[in-house]
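Support reply, case 0932

Customer input (verbatim):
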Amino acid sequence: MTTPTASEPSNPTAPGAAQVSVAGSAPGGGTEAAAVPQQQYGAIEAEAIDALQKALASEHAAIWSYGFMIAFNKDDTTKIAAYQLNHTVARDGVAAMLLGAGAQPVRTEVEYQVPVTVTDTGTARQLAVVVERDCTNTWRFVVGSTDNPLVRDFAVSALSDSAVRQTAWKLFDPAVNPLVPFPGDETA
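Our regenerated output:
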């Protein structure tokens, strides 16, 4: 895993955690998990299906949020576009996984309520931190919900990638500690 730069794409919300949502990758740049055809994921537990649906909802929210952020942040357009693409790849991978398991993937919302009032570059970056935190939380929930090694590998990769993106956004604010001891285990 490498630290993403502005020109280089990177690649749950656990119950009770904050979400960028209404009243809702292959990670690593789209190479690993997406290369595994959906039928090769094998049986996926019911608990994991529920967790994957939550992760999919977080990915939908992240994609929408990055599209929203770009209107307020002209300094980071390349990074925003790359990160939005990372989330699109993750979304497509988890949707394929769900379809392969016979589950109907949750749909995206028309719009999302964001927990940060976005008015400029700084507040857009704050929203990006929240978006990535929510994704790490949901992917951590997936990791703990399954014994399927391929599903778990996909989730760990997605969690790691979101944690790296979250740290990259936190680096813009010197008042914020960019390090998270246990990514995916955050509520604030």
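We compared this against your earlier run and they match. Two observations from our side: The domain at 27-170 is CATH 1.20.1260.10 (Ferritin). Helices lie at 27-30, 46-69, 77-100, 121-143, 149-170. Please reopen the case if you see a mismatch on your end.
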